[in-house]
Each structure stands twice: as C-alpha cells, then as structure tokens.
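Re-running the complex after MR caught last week's input typo. The corrected sequence lines follow. Everything else is unchanged.
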Amino acid sequence: MQAVLQFLNANMWPLIDALVIVGVFPLMAGYVVLLERKVMADMQARLGPMRVGPHGLLQPLADALKLMIKEDIIPESADRIIFWMAPVLSVTAGMLAFAAIPIGPGFLIANMNVGLLFILAVSSMGIFGIVLGGWASNSHYSLLGALRSSAQLVSYEVAVGMAMVSGLLLAGTLSMKDIVAAQAEKGMWFAFVAPVGFVIYLIGSVAETNRAPFDLPEAESELVAGYMTEYSGFRWALYFLAEYSNMIVVASVATTLFLGGWMRPFASVHAFDFLDFVPVLFMLGVTGYCLYRIPKQTGWDQKFILAIFAGICFVIAAALGMVFAPPLAFLKVPVLGAFWFIAKVMGYVYVFLWVRFTFPRYRFDQLMRLGWHFLIPLSIVNVMGVATALVLHRQAGWSSWVAFPVLLVVTILLAFWLVRAGERRDQQAARSAA
Amino acid sequence: MDETRSEGMAPPSVELAVPGADEIVINMGPQHPSTHGVLRVKLRLDGERIDGSECIIGYLHRGVEKIAEHRSYQQFAPYVDRMDYVAAVSNGLGYCEAVEKLLGAEAPPRARVVRTILTELQRIASHLLWLGTHALDIGALTPIFYCLREREEILKIFEKYCGARLTTHAFRIGGLQYETYDGFEHDVKRFCDDFGTKVDEYEQLLTGNRIWVGRCKGVGVLTAKQAIALGVTGPPLRASGVKWDLRKAMPYAAYDRYDFIIPTGTNGDTYDRYLVRMEEMRQSRRICLQAVENIPTGPIMAKVGKVLKPPPGEVYHSIEAPKGEIGYYVVSDGTTQPYRVRVRPPSFINLQAFDTMVRGHLVADVVAIIGTLDIVLGEVDR
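Corrected-run output:
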C-alpha cells in the first residue's frame, strides 16, 4: 500500500496527463473528423453536417454511438485472433506516441532523452495493424491494400527520418522538450532555418498517414476500402481513430520539431507580447459567435446545446484569462503554451485537409518514384546542406544569416536538378519502350 | 455450352479463361464504385500490370429496340431519353430528326434553333458530369461539386422549358411541343456568361496539376488508325487527331449557321481527351451565345399530322451526341409503328476500344480509362 501511494505521489502528474490523453483524445479525434467534414463542405460549396446538434456539433458523438452499437461482423474465413488484434495494435501505437509529445512545458507524460526516436519507433508499429488486418481479412482487396500500405510506409519513413535529422542537427538533442528549448534559444523556428527539411517532412507525413493524395491503400475508386474493407462497427472505428491519431501525432512532431512547439509566434520579441492575449480573445470570439447564432437555431434543444457549447468556450476563455492574474502567473507559460501547441497542430492538420480536397491521387508507381527518386535523395542532400551550414557557422565563423541561406539555395538548386533528371529519365524510358 | 451457362453471361474469351502461373484474373464490378454503373470488367493481371481484359455488359439491358416495334413513332420518343440518360436531349434530337427524314418533313427554323441551343446545353451538362466523375475516379474529390453546381443551372433551364430535368423528352417529331418560356434567352445568356470563367476555374484546378498530368498523359493511348478501325467517335476520336464532327461534316438542326471550331488532340491519350472535352464545352457555350442572340420567329411545329404513317422505306440519321455519333436506323413498313429501330450507341462502340487502351497499364489506370471513355451503361446495354 505504502509503495503504491509513494508511486502515485511521485508520478501523479504524468498519470493525470495520461488519463486526460486517453479520455479526451478520442473526442478530439472525433472533432477533427467534424472539422474535416466542415472544411470539405466549405471547399465544395456545401454546408456539411448540420442536423445532429447545431451546425453538426454533436455529429462526432452520434457517429461514435452508432459505430459502437453496430453489429460486429467477422468474416468466416478470417483469422479471428489476428483480425481482433490488428485494429487494437494500430490504435495503441497511435496513442502510445502521445507519451512523448509535450503539449506545453507542463503537460508531458514522459520527458525521455530519446523522445523523438520513441515516437518514430512506436508510430511505425502501427503498420503492423494494417498489414495484419489486411492479411487476416482473407480478401484480395484487403491484402492488396495492406501490401500497398506497408510498401508506402517503408519508403516514406526514410525520407521523413532524414528530414527529422536535419531538425535534430540544429537542436542537438532527441528530447522533445529540449528541442523546443533549442528553438527558443535560437529565437527562430527550425522551419525557417531548414525549410527544405520541413517541406519534406510535410509531404512525407501526408504519405505516412495514408492521406490523400497518397491514400492508395484505401483508394476508394480502386480498392473499395483497402485493408479496412472487411471491418465494420467498433473495429472499423478503431482503425479510423488510429488514422486520425496518427495524423495528430505527425502534426505534433512537426509542431515540436519545426514550428517551435508551445512557443507563441515571435516568442522572444517583446513588441509582440500582446499576442499573449490572442488565446483569450479567440475563445471569447468563439463564445460570442455561439451566442450570436443561438437565436437562429430551430427548436429549444438546439438552442440549449449551442448555449452549452458557448458555456464551454467561455470556461476555456476564463481559464486562459486566469493566468494573467498575478498569483497564477506561474501557469502562464504552460496554459498559453498548450493553446499555441494545439493551434499549431490544427493548422498543420488543416493543410492535410486542404491538400486532400485539392489534389488528385497518385498512382502507385508514381508515388514510389516520388519517394525514392526525389524525396529521399533530396532529404539526404538537405541533411548534408544543414550540416555544412552548421560547420561553417560554428567552425569557420560564418554568420548564420549567411551560411543557412547559401546552403538553402544550393539545396533548392539541387532539388530542381533532381526533378529535371527524373523527367529526362522518364522520357528515355518512354523512348526505349516505344 | 455448359460453360457458357455457368458463367451466366457471354462465354469468356479463351485467353482470359486460362491464366498462366504468375497471373490472376480479377473481377471489377458490376458493383464497383468506379465502373460508372453496372459495367463488369474482367482483368487478367500480371502483378499489377494488365495483360488482357474483357468487358461484360448487359446488366442494364431492357430491349429498347424491341420496344420500338410495339409503339407508335411518337410513343417511342421518350424511350430514347432513357438510353444515355445524362444526355437525353441529344438522344431525342437524333430520333426526332431520323423520323422527320423518314416522313420527308422538316422542322421550322425557330424549332431548329431552339433545338440547337438545348442540345448544346445538354452537351455542356454531359461533359460537366463526365469531368466531375472522371476527376473523382482519379482522386480529386472537389471538382464534381463545382460541376454539379453548374449542371444544375442547365437542368433548371430544361425544367423551366419542358418540366423535366433528366429524361426531358424536349422535342417532338416535326418540331417542338412547347414555345420557349419568357426569359429563356435571358437564362441561357446568363448561364453562358457565368460559365466562361467557370471552365477556366476547372482548368486551373486540373490542367497544370502535376499529379493530374502524371495520371493522364500517356494513359490509354488510342492512335488515329486504331480509333477509326474500332469505329470510335466523339471526343475520343478527335483526341486522336481526327477532325470528324457531324455538326460540321453533315450539319443538322441549325449548326451550319454558327461559327465554332472542332478541337482535336494529337496523342490520343487521356489528357488529350480531357483537353478536347474542356474545349468542346467552351465551343458549345459559343454556339449557345450565337444562337440565343437571334432566334427566328415563326411556327415551332411542322405540319406532320397527329397520326404518323411514314411511307415504307428506311433511313439512317446520326447526330453528334456528347459521347460520339448516335445514329438511328429506322425502317418503316407504312404502318403507325416502326418495323425496326436500330440504335448506334456511341458508348457501346467506344467501349470496344477499352481492351486496346488498357493493355500494359496498371489497375489504377483502369478507372481512369473507363472514366475517359465517358460511357453510360444505359446506352451500352439499351
């Protein structure tokens, strides 16, 4: 008993953090889905979900309920144990990665010295869920989807890893907390110091989460639903949750590594201190909009639900505003940091959605060519470029304002050369085929 | 014989029936999301590469041609709308003109111009639907909503004109049943004015997009020689570089009065077919604008009588439908019902090119090629 209490006492905050993640996260993923549908509707000149709750605000809850009470079907010829295990594996990998992601300086479950490696390792485990699920379903389409998925993940993992290396070279540490600290110290996000690395990470992370335009494993018009074809009900929901949690994980890693983590924009410039009030004003604005829309709802229930949402937003605004009170000043950095972190993650996710609704889908061979012939060489060149710039800066005494831009230009020139070389190779291949 | 029966449909061709050791035969459709209806395609795959294919059709067969033999000439007119149901107006025009030819009658000038306007609007509507679904097949989720938005405006004009949106039965043998409604010219003009910039928007979204170009260039190439040999017509033929358009070659309705060009491609691939159709929409808009400026006044119906009894004889008349040449071969035995009506459906004949186009490509290209052929199964199966 004593030992348990001692353990709880020593690890109270990480445990609370973990409970919050496990409890809040599925809800958050649900609302990311709602966000996606709303953004999609907006881009496609539609309204999107409007029926369940005001502006569809209860849609995620309704979807979750529906999926949970749906009949659970396991195909007769499926491998039951693996069929059961695969989605669990997928979702576990996605959520486990959150252990090392710092949502604000105070909100971190495990401050590991190998944080980034841990995330990379754990989130790659998710592919087992996909491959096993596709195999266990015992269906052609599922298997094709699973194989495509694994091939794609393995190829893009390399480019993503190399892109991360360019950030790591700048930070000099694998601990997620220290990476943000290094950016604070430099006074600049690494996305601006190593933009090529950031762009490679952006492309690679879209491919790694199997989102459009790289969503071949579940290409609806070709493979029905890929590895998920035979899944339904709650198991399907787990896969869905895994996909969105992966999205949030890669967005969090990008935020931490390239976008300054929990720091607000221009964190070191005091002239921009007024930005600290943005979180409060933003939440107050959302509250105000909810209140403004209440009279326009039909029916008292819709009005009531929207009023509740307005209340929640106001409570959050109040919590964010509280930190400006002098006795609570020690909460200022963690609380506002959490807001900025989530805002950046959402911005990154928005880019995912934007890309999804704009671009057509790659063909499998084109996807592989993009990965192996362009992104991987470019990411290696980029790592060498960043390393050279660092050496020039530290050993040869170049100003970082000269060293990094010069190497950036060289890297971009090489990128163009790679594209040209690829096109020439394609032309040659076409000529030899004809 | 037993084999045939166990297949349920046509006997499988020999090369598909016996796959080699490294090959698998997979079945796409008839309930596949991107076979555009109930087309069933059997593919023989070597890895993901396609070695051979066979289209299995007939799931939507309703015996339209046989029905014609038991209906009077007027009664059969609504049936043709249900063949290519996304371009009903064009189908109706072909049939009406064929029977008019048989009767030796001619629609009055006003009717011909209104027919031209509606048919060209229908061409735009059909191409818009093609563009949206084709883009959706290739993975671009958004264009279809923009396309449907513009198509809706056209359907509204149809609805105002004749009360129906899809299977319109807009024309009658001998001319038109209805006068144009008040503000018809205004509606058409407004649509055309808006539409000019809309086409440019679609092109912005797709034409220069590297992924789109990558998915379309060099996919499903059909040379001019192959296209002619297979009897392909419409945009697929013109994309292969053959300047053949019945609106110019054998003008019907009022097309000889208007100034428009026939866009052609050079490579005969999916990308060229895309460009040709985009340009055709612009040209259709031009025709509409010219026609609506100056609609002649006068009667809208020729004197053909209530009971149609064409003299014994036969006639073949074809027009340029959005999907290609739609032709009607009508045989009369002098009674009120046609002795035989044979339809030359563009979708059915263009679908023959599928196997030629798909060989050597990947599975992902199959959906692109089905999309670029722009088939409607109602017309393929009839």
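None of the earlier attempt is carried over here. The beta strands of chain B are 23-28, 40-46, 49-56, 171-172, 175-176, 313-321, 324-332, 338-344. The mean pLDDT of chain B is 84.
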